[in-house]
């Protein structure tokens, strides 16, 4: 099968489209014919070696964790899915090696759910990691109806989903963003405030009664900003600041969860969340996709089609 690989830590230019053996399919796994693979910043950060101290990486690597596709085969003692089922998932395994930038990927059923029926394969491939990150941040913070939530970096891929999920739970959402994204945030149900100096004062003017929860999807001072805004004792969670725990906040990583993926699919199919796809590129242009991701200028998800 065809797959994108890299053999050592490096830059996007190190990516190659090559022939590799088809993956084996063990008990509790299915073989997925990949229709689309989502691109996330963690993909190129892993390839650059930034997370080698945290995650086991075995070269050569097929990158990618997000997938949407069709079940091609099922492993022994696996009756969760049948051949032909449309699925999507966050296929994060025990180590980084056999990812989703390929024609086929073997996926533990714990990492999959049925694809949202209302989403295209490209849209579905953009949902798993960003959706799980935002959903788990919102739910682990205990967001509930009637609360006021501030989301820092609310217009990005993760932040925009966090806005929609919190709104779906009945929360009032205030989102920080650049001015060009304010109309976009309003369309998602959030009240936008401008980044930069004075943002805490602008939030206080919108919510003089106080803020219950702070969610940081940015890093670089986001935890400290939210701690200055959220009422004493209110949770502050960051997905971007590895040192959040040392600052009295909580740092979380997305966890594979078939249950949470099913919930996200239900939210999508009932129109409560949408996935914005900014760029769709063929698998062979994975390097270009990484350049776009690293530049940070793309609004919406970057997706590779296979």
From TrEMBL:
Residues 10-304 form the Enoyl reductase (ER) domain. GO terms for molecular function: oxidoreductase activity. It comes from the Bacteria. CDD domains: MDR_like_2 (cd05289). Pfam families: ADH_N, ADH_zinc_N_2. This is Alcohol dehydrogenase.
């Amino acid at each position: 099968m065809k797959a994108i690989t890299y053999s050592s830590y490096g830059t996007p230019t190190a990516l190659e489209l090559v022939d590799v053996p088809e993956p084996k399919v063990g008990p509790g796994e299915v073989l997925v014919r990949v229709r689309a693979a989502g691109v996330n910043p963690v993909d190129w950060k892993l390839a650059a070696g930034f997370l080698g101290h945290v995650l086991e990486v075995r070269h050569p690597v097929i990158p990618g964790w997000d997938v949407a596709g069709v079940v091609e085969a099922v492993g022994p003692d696996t009756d969760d899915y049948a051949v032909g089922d449309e699925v999507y998932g966050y296929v994060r395994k025990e180590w980084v090696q056999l990812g989703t930038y390929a024609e086929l990927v073997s996926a533990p059923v714990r990492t999959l759910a049925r694809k949202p029926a209302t989403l295209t394969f490209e849209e579905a491939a953009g949902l798993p990691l960003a959706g799980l990150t935002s959903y788990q941040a919102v739910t682990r913070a205990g967001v509930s109806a009637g609360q006021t939530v501030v989301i820092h970096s609310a217009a990005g891929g993760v932040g925009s989903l966090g806005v929609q999920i919190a709104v779906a739970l009945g929360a009032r959402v205030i989102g920080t963003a650049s001015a060009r994204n304010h109309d976009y945030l309003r369309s998602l149900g959030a009240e936008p405030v401008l980044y930069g100096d004075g943002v805490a004062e602008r939030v206080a003017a919108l919510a003089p009664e106080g803020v219950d929860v702070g969610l940081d999807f940015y890093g670089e001072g986001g935890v400290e900003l939210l701690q200055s805004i959220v009422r004493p004792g209110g949770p502050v969670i960051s997905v971007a600041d590895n040192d959040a725990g040392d600052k009295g906040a909580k740092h979380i990583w997305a966890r594979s969860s078939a249950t949470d993926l099913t919930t996200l699919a239900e939210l999508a199919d009932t129109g409560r969340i949408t996935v914005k796809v900014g760029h769709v590129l063929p698998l062979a242009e994975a390097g270009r996709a990484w350049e776009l991701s690293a530049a940070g200028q793309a609004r919406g998800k970057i997706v590779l089609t296979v």
